[in-house]
Design a protein that fits this description.
Blueprint: H1 2-8, H2 10-13, H3 28-66, E1 89-96, H4 101-116, E2 121-128, H5 133-145, E3 149-159, H6 161-168, E4 171-174, E5 179-181, E6 186-189, E7 192-195, H7 199-220, E8 237-242, E9 247-251, H8 253-260, H9 310-319, E10 337-344, E11 351-353, H10 354-359, H11 372-379, E12 383-387, H12 391-400, H13 402-425, H14 431-450, H15 455-473, H16 480-497, H17 511-537, H18 543-546, H19 561-566, E13 579-582, E14 589-594, E15 597-603, E16 613-619, E17 624-628
Parallel strand pairs: 1-2, 1-12, 2-3, 3-4, 3-5, 15-17
Antiparallel strand pairs: 5-11, 6-7, 8-9, 8-10, 13-14, 13-16, 14-15, 16-17
Helix pairs in contact: 3-14, 4-5, 4-12, 5-6, 7-9, 12-13, 12-14, 13-14, 13-17, 15-16, 16-17
Length: 645
């Protein structure tokens, strides 16, 4: 710093007033900081572009290289292999842990890589408690669009969204001790996962989920009434078999009475449950008549519980695409049916073990599949490739999803603001600027990679930082760039949070996300403000910072950014009680002249016009506070005399 000050001294000797060396736009240090900030912003932009362009390509290339060659395919399956699941080239795509937007993006990439490399079938290896509703529906759509045979491997659990994904596949197989079920809509509340009690909200959430699960059941031969028990309480059913075809049906009470003409027998259900749940939905009131959608001709939904309103049934019916088979039960005589037993009492959500999955017709293969080699024998695969989530996708998930991701991003905001404050207050080491850039990259890059943040949010952050720098270095005292920059920065930070999704099945809307985002950003700003206060108060106790602060004023103090920001130190030429005249309006910051010296000051009480008399009320390392002197007060400086030793 001494060398820079020495180099800068001749500027004053060439006729430029030394008092103006303290101004931001004209000082050498100000230009250097502006150059460093611009260089840093360029590095961030280049890093974002490089990560967005290179990461997906490298991951895709790696996965594609691991997938089997297509030349090994054979046309005839071995005698021990079912022709429907025969796959010489088999891709296994894992869906493990909570299902998020990252999972959906990763699943799409891996499906594309498997198909491009010649996969004959895809096994979805599921071990998940559920996740975000949007991500689950997106994965189901990818499965149905794949164009190859898909097998859900419950290994060992598929709850909530995992169960909906399993039903979307063409076939389900299980590992030892597997279980599946319980996909009722819930939401993430302040105290954790909460059941949605509002009937109106539940109906809105049930529409897309009910459409998806009934469509999948129809396409893959599962009973469409039984699967409704995954989403809602009150689904009471009796299992019957149509003996000529061996087809299984799960009848509601009205259907049972219509077919057999008697009241159904109750007892211990196949799916054991506890006592009736409070607020249990009423039994279905439909008479068994199944309507068709007049526009598509698709058989309408048969509601399995009285919770489903007429409006919900009509909405689901309009969105169904698969033809139903429910009308068959009324075309057969009653003596062709064999009553197997009381299946579900509706007191709990449908949750099934491996044996119950087979008993209820969800699995055709009875033996458990626990290893890839057993899977090879089941499908006749010559080549098997596992396509797992990449490390970069896992890292992105940790940084953006769930409460942990929100906490990490909140901490990154605090680090970013503190580091930026340190860099602008104590330039020279570059440590603060480097940390701020790293924290900013951690905030904006992961959400961009999964589409959870828009480009406007990134632009708002960069514009906000730029305006704040302009306020400090180019237009000190104006106030407008600083306020606009702060608003833009907050809006951009909120934008990186919002749109990341909800815990599935969750509230299908952005209000909850927005509230969490705003709360997190405001909390981070408050924490950063507290940190800045302590940094300002105890700067001299920090070894690195102490070396950047001059204990006594020098002739070149105005050439440092610290000096420019502080105006004067406690022992400087401007002292408490000294009077001067404002040269710019104080809004509330600006400049004032004290005995020919221009000093950056801040008004302690409201705005002050240019040309007004002011008195120094406080002097710190970073700030000179003043107050307006009422007209008619005593003129002249009232600074206290220097204390003698």
């Amino acid at each position: 710093m001494a060398e820079l000050n020495a180099q800068h001294q001749p500027m004053a000797s060439r006729g430029r007033s030394p008092s103006y060396n303290r101004s931001y736009p004209g000082g050498y240090a100000g230009r250097m900081v502006m150059r460093e900030v611009w260089r840093g912003l360029r590095i961030v932009i280049l890093a974002v572009v490089a990560m967005l362009l290179l990461a997906p390509q490298s991951s895709f290339a790696t996965l594609r290289g691991s997938v089997m060659p297509a030349a090994m395919s054979a046309s005839t399956p071995p005698p021990t292999v079912d022709a429907r699941r025969y796959a010489p080239n088999l891709a296994i795509i894992s869906v493990h842990g909570p299902i998020t937007a990252v999972t959906a993006r990763s699943f799409e990439r891996r499906v594309r890589a498997a198909l491009d490399s010649g996969a004959d079938a895809i096994v979805v290896d599921i071990n998940s408690p559920g996740g975000e509703v949007g991500a689950v529906l997106e994965i189901c759509a990818q499965i149905k669009r794949s164009g190859v045979h898909t097998i859900a491997w419950i290994n060992p659990m598929a709850f909530s969204g995992g169960a909906i994904i399993a039903i979307a596949c063409d076939e389900i197989i299980v590992s030892t001790g597997a279980s599946m079920g319980d996909a009722a809509p819930v939401r993430l509340g302040m105290l954790g996962i909460e059941r949605i009690e509002d009937p109106e909200i539940r109906q809105k959430l049930l529409a897309p989920l009910l459409t998806e699960i009934v469509d999948s059941a129809r396409a893959n031969g599962y009973d469409e009434v039984l699967v409704q028990g995954l989403l809602s309480l009150g689904v009471e059913t009796w299992q019957v078999e149509h003996t000529p075809t061996g087809r299984l049906y799960f009848l509601t009470e009205p259907e049972y009475r219509r077919i057999f003409g008697t009241e159904p027998q109750r007892g211990a259900p196949t799916i054991p449950s506890g006592s009736p749940t409070a607020g249990l939905a009423s039994p279905p009131t439909q008479t068994g008549t199944v309507q068709q959608d007049p526009t598509t001709g698709v058989e309408g939904l048969t509601p399995a519980t009285g919770e489903f309103t007429r409006e919900l049934v009509e909405e689901v019916t309009q969105n169904l695409t698969q033809p139903g088979r429910r009308q068959d039960i009324y075309a057969f005589p009653a003596d062709e049916f064999r009553v197997i037993g009381y299946a579900t009492d509706g007191n709990t959500l449908l949750t099934m073990s491996a044996d119950q999955l087979h008993q209820f017709g969800f699995t055709r293969h009875q033996q458990a599949v626990d290893t890839d080699e057993q899977l090879r024998a089941l499908t006749g695969a010559t080549n098997i490739a596992r396509l797992n989530q990449s490390w970069s996708e896992t890292f992105t998930g940790v940084m953006t999803q769930g409460m942990l991701g929100m906490m990490i991003r909140t901490i990154l905001i605090v680090v970013f603001l503190l580091a930026l404050f340190i860099e602008l207050s104590m330039p020279g080491t570059g440590v603060g600027g480097t940390i701020a850039l790293v924290a900013l990259a951690g905030l904006i890059v992961p959400p961009l990679m999964i589409g959870a943040a828009s480009w406007w949010a990134i632009a708002a952050i960069l514009v906000g930082v730029g305006l704040i720098v302009l306020e400090l270095l180019v237009f000190p005292g104006m106030g407008i760039p600083g306020i606009a920059g702060l608003i833009s920065l907050i809006a951009g930070l909120v934008g990186t949070f919002a749109g990341a999704g909800q815990i599935f099945p969750g509230v299908n809307g952005g209000n909850n996300d927005l509230a969490w985002a705003v709360s997190s950003v405001l909390l981070a700003i408050f924490a950063a403000g507290v940190g800045m206060f302590f940094l300002t108060r105890y700067t001299r106790a920090i070894p690195i910072a102490k070396g950047l602060i001059l204990d006594t004023p020098t002739s070149s103090a105005g050439n440092t950014i610290l000096g420019a920001m502080a105006g004067a130190t406690v022992s400087g030429p401007v002292r408490i009680g000294e009077r001067g005249v404002t040269t710019t309006p104080l809004l509330p910051s600006g400049r004032a002249e004290f005995d020919g010296r221009l000093v950056d000051v801040v008004s302690e009480y409201g705005f002050v016009d240019a040309g007004a008399d002011v008195r120094v009320t406080s002097v710190t390392q970073y700030r000179v506070g003043v107050e307006a002197v009422p007209p008619g007060s005593e003129t002249g400086n009232a600074a206290p005399p220097e204390a003698s030793a």
